[in-house]
Specification:
- The protein has 105 residues and is an alpha+beta fold.
- The chain has one domain: Translation Initiation Factor IF3, CATH 3.30.110.
- Helices cover 34% and strands 40% of the residues.
- A four-stranded mixed sheet has the order 1-3-4-2.
Length: 105
């Protein structure tokens, strides 16, 4: 499954549009990670715990996006956008990836 943010794939003509494919992932940040992240933010360091959580959520969203495209019979998903949201009081993070499922020639 080809996943791309571009609207086309060079050298591979799009022969059919199958609909919108999407993938979502929600990850909860635990209280200890929140506490340590807040301390690191105060001293100007990067929060590795949050970075890893976002990487995991993004990978899960793309995996779901590919599965959604496969269910539609697609060879690729083009025009992908990724959105990050905080849910509730900030203890939950949601990553959403959406794009157009297509058949390629």
């Amino acid at each position: 499954m080809i996943l791309t943010t571009t609207p086309t794939i060079e050298g591979r003509p799009i022969t059919g549009y199958l609909g919108i494919a999407s993938g979502e992932a929600v990850i909860g940040a635990n209280i200890f990670r929140d506490l340590f992240a807040a301390v690191r933010d105060v001293v100007g360091g990067r929060s590795g715990a949050y970075e890893r959580a976002f990487e995991e959520a993004r990978a899960a969203a793309f995996s779901e996006l590919a599965r959604s495209g496969e269910e539609l019979g697609a060879d690729a998903v083009v025009g992908i956008t990724v959105d990050y949201e905080s849910i509730g009081s900030g203890s939950m993070m949601m990553v959403t990836a959406t794009g157009t499922a297509v058949k390629l020639g």
